[in-house]
Amino acid sequence: MLRYGRTPVVHGVDVALRPGTVTALLGPNGSGKSTVLRALARLHPLSGGEVRLQDQADGGPRERSTALLSPMELARAMTLFTQTRSSPQGLAVREVVAFGRHPHRRRFAGLSPADRAAIDHAMALTGITALADRGVGELSGGEMQRVWLASCLAQDTGIVLLDEPTNHLDLRYQIETLDLVRDLAELHGTAVGIVLHDLDHAARIADQVLLLCRGEVHAAGGAAEVLTSEHLTAVYEIPVDVVQEPGTGRLRIDARGRHARREQPGRDAAHTGDRSGDPALSAAAARA
After folding, report:
1. Is 194 helix (H, G, I), strand (E, B) or coil?
2. Which of 121, 160, 235, 285 has the fewest CB atoms lying closer than 10 Å?
């Protein structure tokens, strides 16, 4: 159970992040998605239950409660990308990405060749190599988003937790970030937990889905099992259509509003015809 003050906000949630798998946490605002993610990273206290980490030791596989790990041990096991980081001033992009190497460095030690290689690799993955020597104060919000993502990847952990990593990104970098998430799972065997608002994004990359509603699990399982019209309509309280594309099998998700676009013969022709008499367009032309 998770609380804010004395108020329970999430309860009865059981989630497993497995190597090579992308698990998406979905649900309306206030459903508890980000709270669960923060609890996994030990940034939100548990009122009940526990978070357990399975990894490899010299003697073979082991399982431990994350409550028993030191901060450095936890940081070498998992990284969390959040939406609430402030931009440090007076630093270059490369220096901010280097923050991710802190758990791997000895106290007062400089960057090792392995550190520098991890930093360069993370910047290449996120498309910010050309920004390496620029000050972070010169960057746009979307560019800064990618810098923080690179810092997380430079941490080089087996578990990556991402809280809405496509926010503030233009279309190209949204898709490249989603592709990167799939690459982390498929090529590197990373266990990925990701909070998303865009259901099409979840359908594109998720293996498993945890669908939350009012702090409880509404549905959990494979993406095709959970991302159904029935489940999504019930949780989001708006009609949602889910169609599987023939051939690719990809899910297309469309929420139906009151003003769904309709074909209107006669009026649609105005989009390509002469609209010089249109009052709005005439006014705009007069101001240009």
Report:
1. strand
2. 285
Q: How far apart are CA 147 and CA 139, in angstroms?
A: 9
Q: Which residues contact 224 (CB under 8 A, 6 or more apart)?
A: 244, 251
> Torsion angle, CA of 275/279/283/285, rounded to 10 degrees?
10
pTM of the entire predicted model: 0.84
Quick one: pLDDT at residue 279?
A: 52
* Residue found by looking up tokens 């209107």 in the block: 264
Whether 18 maps to a domain, the answer reads yes
Tell me which residue of 249, 236, 150 sits closest to 204, measured CA to CA. Answer: 249
Structure tokens at 204: 């594109």
Give the torsion sign (CA, 261, 264, 267, 273).
positive
The tens digit of pLDDT for each residue in 97-129 reads 999 999 998 776 789 999 999 999 999 999 999
Instruction: Look at residue 9 and tell me whether its pLDDT is greater than 80.
Output: no
- The candidate with the shortest Cα–Cα distance to 37, out of 51, 54, 56, is 51
Taking alpha carbons only, the member of 236, 5, 21, 26 closest to residue 13 is: 26
CB 177, CB 152: distance < 8 Å: no
- The whole-angstrom separation of Cα 2 and Cα 44 is 8
pLDDT for 288 beyond 70: no
- Which structural domain, as residue segments, surrounds residue 180? 2-84+158-255
